[in-house]
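Usage

Read records sequentially. Each one opens with the input sequence:
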Amino acid sequence: MKKLWSGRFNAATALSVEEFTESISFDQRLWRYDIEGSIAHTKMLAHQGIISHKDAEDIIEGLNSIARDIETGAFVFKQELEDIHMNIESALIHRIGDVGGKVHTARSRNDQVALDLRLYLRHETSLIINLLKDLQDVLIDIAKIHTRTIMPGYTHLQRAQPVTLAHYMLAYLEMFKRDIERLRDVYKRINTMPLGACALAGTTLNTDRAYTAELLGFDRISENSIDAVSDRDFVIEFISDVSIIMMHLSRMAEELILWATEEFSFIKLSDAFTTGSSIMPQKKNPDVLELIRGKTGKIYGALINILTTMKGLPLAYNRDMQEDKTPLFEVIDTIKAVLSILTELLGSVTFNVERLLNTAGSGYSLATDLAEYLVKKGIPFRNAHEITGRVVRYCIDNNAELESLSLDIYKEFSSVIGEDIYHKLTLSASVTARTSLGGTSPTEVERQIKNFLRDYRNKI
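and closes with the structure output:
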């Protein structure tokens, strides 16, 4: 088949070269955006009098017919035509004749692929934001139920202080808030129109890029035609943002895996989201969560992939940039799948409230409450910390708990300790008293939930 760019060449392209250079096997998913961009470009050409309105109508009808065939599966993509752009343009010329060749007036595949990629990524970014919102909704639902469910909080994976389960869930909510903010920020840079930059230098034809941008819903237009066709910062930034999301999801997956073990027994995973062993009948494995952890490396690899591809490229477009799509597509497919299944899984988790409560008080987790009690009695914190440390040492040596010590023993460590200490050294009192902004008290957690639903949720 004759190439659309064959005028310059005497020899046909070698089959091995066609196989090596083709991208239609993966960039065909851009077809909808390629046609959308071509329709807008055609309308601009007619608007500017560069082509006739009749030619524009024929081109647009031809493009719409191709879209219908692709949707129904009737369209045949051809490897020898290399990419999605040449497949669609070739089909258009075949259907409506030479007038179809006018669609490529005042553009190049260089700015065309940049356009398709931005349209595609703009759409997918919005979908991923919505999936993050769905996950946030599950976290909020859990938090609403468990504002007074007490559990152990950890630092260094050692029991530290009691917190509420709602407070724990809201920590992940904050992570996903930042993730959404980052995606909304990169969306601004994705939503820049490159079409009209042509190969790299613009065109002598009287085009109206602002008109095209308006038709396609772009907020701004690329200012420099060289940068327009060679910029993939928006792809790198998007994958970087998704890498952070995957880090958050992997942390959550790791935590849920630990919590589901017999050793923790904090949660019970639904049978629907676990698998069994081929040899051990008793096993119930958290394979979904483990795969989320595992897929995180794939996303990180994609980021290194695109950074490495771009790091040595001179201006402007280079064919290396064709390799931006494979990692990008894999990142998008992976993050959407992970967000969807984790949202389902998390909504089916059963929390062992009794176990959470029973483990929250062990390990002298109320020691900080004792130290702060002493501070309120006028003792400098460093001294209060040292006194409390000696109390804990006494408890360890005598196999006792803080709340079980007699008042006489307490007074051996500090004369300011009174009967009121026993009202402070309970799990309920500990979490209830932590009313500082962002703290774990039920009233503060309820405020956080209310503010999220009233203020932040309405903005995203």
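Summary fields computed downstream for this record:
- The mean pLDDT is 95.
- The two ends are 49 Å apart (CA to CA).
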